[in-house]
Amino acid sequence: MPLYKPSNTNAHVTTQFSLKGKVAAVTGGVRGIGLAASRALAEAGATVAILYSSTKDAPEIAQQLSQETGVTVKAYKASVENRGEISSVLDAIASEFGSLDIVVANAGIASHYPAEEYTEEQWRRIMDVNLDGAFWTAQAAGNIFKKQGRGNLIFTASVSAILVNVPQKQAAYNASKAAVVQLARCLSVEWVEFARVNCVSPGFIATDMLSVHPQEWRDKWFGMIPANRLCDPAELKGAYVFLASDASTYMTGANLVIDGGYTLP
Ligand SMILES: NC(=O)c1ccc[n+]([C@@H]2O[C@H](COP(=O)([O-])OP(=O)(O)OC[C@H]3O[C@@H](n4cnc5c(N)ncnc54)[C@H](OP(=O)(O)O)[C@@H]3O)[C@@H](O)[C@H]2O)c1
Asked: Which residues pair with 205 in a beta bridge?
């Protein structure tokens, strides 16, 4: 079977971007980039399940998003590194809403250690969440998409997949994100008959993940970003809607780099 093609490829472009009638799930959907992606999908009309692992006020965040966007937004607890948990939560979302059309595998963590000093636990934690967690999310989504005959998977990778950040030392994070980009490419080919699979690779985005770093690092980064500023998570909203929607039906296996020019010089 060829890659899905809409019956009317000539539909008005604003119609192509609409997600009305779609059901989406976003891991790490209650904070930072995931929250911006969740808001974007909801604003485009999708019903959105926001997944979290430790955020205490996730149900309240979902309720507020629902009020602000006028669509159903509901919070679900699942740790992505737990294969059984993420699979049963995505299955439950699909059966509660009748389908699951879009999954954003966004949950991720960062840590910084000199490569020669990683303990097994520190190395494994990054891989468990960023790589294994992304794969368990993808596998659960892929099984649902295969049954439905159609679905759309988007990973949040990183520019760290294609460059080596300085001054911080983060070999595990960078390796995990490079693996996610290659995973997306593999799945886009394996699943071409029933799913599109793409990555968003953000540069420096102003979320909790960055706010913990010393000012000295941040000053150094600014000097390396042609845009000369951090990106607001909301500036990524359009990218997630684009990839999730019929505005990108021939796009699969791509890695959309959004970095204010950071990877160019
Ligand atoms: N910020 C950047 O500059 C940047 C740049 C490139 C890529 N990224 C990537 O973008 C993604 C989102 O990062 P962010 O900047 O938005 O960071 P963030 O604000 O720290 O959010 C991370 C999210 O991941 C979730 N999460 C963490 N561990 C989890 C686990 N074991 N199971 C399920 N969910 C888990 C968190 O949920 P809970 O709080 O509920 O645990 C949280 O919602 C990550 O994959 C990150 O690597 C970020």
From this structure: 231
